[in-house]
Amino acid sequence: MSTINFAAREINCKIVYYGPGMSGKTTNLKQVFSKVPGHLRGEMVSLATEDERTLFFDFLPLDLGSVQGFKTRFHLYTVPGQVFYNASRKLILRGVDGIVFVADSAPNRLRANAESMRNLRENLAEHGINVRDVPIVLQINKRDLPDALPASMIRAVIDPRGELQLFEAMADKGVGVFETLKTVSRLVLERLSQTK
Amino acid sequence: MIEPSLALYGEAYARVDALIQELLDAAGVRYGLLVDRKGFVLSHKEALWAPRPPALDSVATLVASNAAATAALANMLGERTFSEQIHQGENGTLYVESVGDQALLTLIFDSSVPLGKVKVYSKKTVPQLAAILDELKDLPEIQLDSDFSAGATSLLDDLLG
After folding, report:
1. Phi and psi dihedrals of B26, rounded to 5?
2. How close is the nearest chain A Cα to the Cα of B116, in Å?
3. In chain B, N or C terminus with fewer CB closer than 10 Å?
4. What is the residue extent of each domain of chain B?
């Protein structure tokens, strides 16, 4: 992963929001976009269909500032969640530094969560990335649904060993959005400073 | 608004900048960018007479994604990649050419500039750019210490509360 552009003294990190269709990946980005002050973020680019389903990706650049002379910047991407868009989903994972997996709390989406997680592992493997080498954070979204499944049940399906950090969220209200992003960013930065 | 840093360190990047500036002057192009395949801007130049450019981060991301999608298409058709892309509109042209396996030279110019002229000049510049990027591969990796992590984390706190 080539994240450090040492000649230009820039560190660029790529964070991808993954998950099944309609789980709230784009909503997460929209919340970040609306709450971060304008001089620290760029424009949000959405390639979506007319009914606002993500077709290729959403993109949002965030500027952290300078750390020890390095301009540090995060690029946030979402993937299209629908099963049949795997070709483009795979492209977006290229060179990823950190992943937020957005799971859906609805009972009828439990299987979709599991399939999306399996798809993520397959796509990472095809890029030659070991799942353990890239920081992944879980976000269980839509906690305000009246029939939301218990978080422990969703976790048992997508993270049976309980290895990943988990956040409960209501992305449309902004709950849990920043906590998730902060955690994945911190994991990415910690990985950068580890001796290679 | 996020723009790439104009203060370039490193002598190699000064040479990249100079090459893109030369190309701009010679071909009459508005904006010239060197973008890596992940969608990050490595270097950019604009002609003095050109209006304010569109958001370069967005341009870079879209160009890189477009190139990735086109490369996937190329693979399906039995090609390794398509090295050149031209998008022509009513008033202007976007011209993208691969620089080695890591970067894309992106040129934006208006309809008064002949495409052929831009092609000729960029074909000359691309191998020179590729050579510089090759040299950069051999530089030692930068080691970041735990101070870096602490500094970055406190900035994160500022940004995300």
Report:
1. -70, -40
2. 31
3. C
4. 10-160
pLDDT at B15 over 50: yes
Within 10 angstroms of residue A15's Cβ, the number of other Cβ atoms is 23
Predicted confidence (pLDDT) per residue in A25-42, tens digit: 999 999 999 999 999 999
Q: CB–CB of B12/A7 below 8 Å?
A: yes
> Smallest CA–CA separation between B122 and chain A, in Å?
23
Place of tokens 């000359």: B124
ipTM above 0.85, yes or no: no
Is B139's pLDDT higher than 70? no
A59-73 pLDDT, tens per residue? 999 988 888 888 889
Quick one: closest CA in A to B61, which residue? A59
- Asked whether the predicted pLDDT for residue A3 surpasses 60, the reply is no
Determine phi and psi for B31, rounding to 5 degrees.
Answer: -130, 140
User: What does the block give as tokens for B57?
Assistant: 């981060």
Banded model confidence at residue B2, pLDDT cuts 50, 70, 90: very low
Strand partners, B110: B92
CA separation for the pair B90, B97 (Å, rounded): 21
Q: Which CATH number fits domain B10-160: 3.30.450.30, 3.30.559.10, 3.10.560.10, 2.60.40.10?
A: 3.30.450.30
Locate B139 and state its tokens: 């530089």
- Domain spanning A3-194, CATH class: alpha beta
Extended strands (E) in chain A? 4-5, 10-18, 45-48, 54-67, 70-78, 98-104, 136-141, 165-168
Task: Please give the Cα distance from A10 to B152 (Å, whole number).
Answer: 13
pLDDT reported for residue B57: 87
Asked if residue B57 lies in contact with residue A10, where contact means CB atoms within 8 angstroms, the answer is: no
Domain borders along chain A are 3-194
Write out chain A residues lying below 8 Å of B12, CB-based. 7
Tell me the C-alpha distance between A169 and A10, whole Å: 32
What is the residue-wise DSSP string for A23-69? SSHHHHHHHHHHHS-GGGB---EEEE-TT--EEEEEEEEEEEEEETT
